[in-house]
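Short-chain family oxidoreductase
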Amino acid sequence: MTTRTDDRLSDRHVAVTGGARGVGRGIAVRCARAGADVTVFDTKPDVAEETASLVRETGSQAAVYEVDVTDESAVEAAVRSATDERGPIHGLVNNAGIQRAVPLLETSEVVWDGHFEVNAKGTFLVSKVVAASMVDAGTADTVVNISSVGAERPFRRQGAYGASKAVVLAFTTVLAKDLSDHDITVNAVKPGTVETPMVEQWLEFHPLR
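Tokens:
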């Protein structure tokens, strides 16, 4: 049983992209434990429902919407459905991302573009659509973008990943300035290595010791 710890986010609606597993799932559950109702945007709705179940255990409400964050029309439709059915989004966590460990000289255009499509473009599109809805609602809201320590101190074989996460940092700074007049706070978080299925898979091929 996942219990509620406080009510700091009571009466708030938080949306998390890539919330089906790993860091995204942890963020969704932690927000719920602080009282928030949670919307999960993910390409894997069946897995995301497991996150939703954990959210509901806290007493908070949860909903899952299948969406590809690289598709602007799909993002617009998902955000419209979430706000129509669940009310205004007060907090957005852009967590959806991919990570592939490939030496730069072996990095294909497909791998490079894939990182920028999901990690950079996805963050841009979801931020753009959700922030517009926040501006329309006229409430004091929050956007948090998940970057990485690798954006400033990239690891070996992480060229595409590190570069795409560096874009997230620059984008966050600009978005914060653009939305400052609307009482919307924008920040980026730069996690290091977190124990998730994606990292475990990476460590199978690139052990730390």
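The first strand starts at residue 13 and ends at 17.
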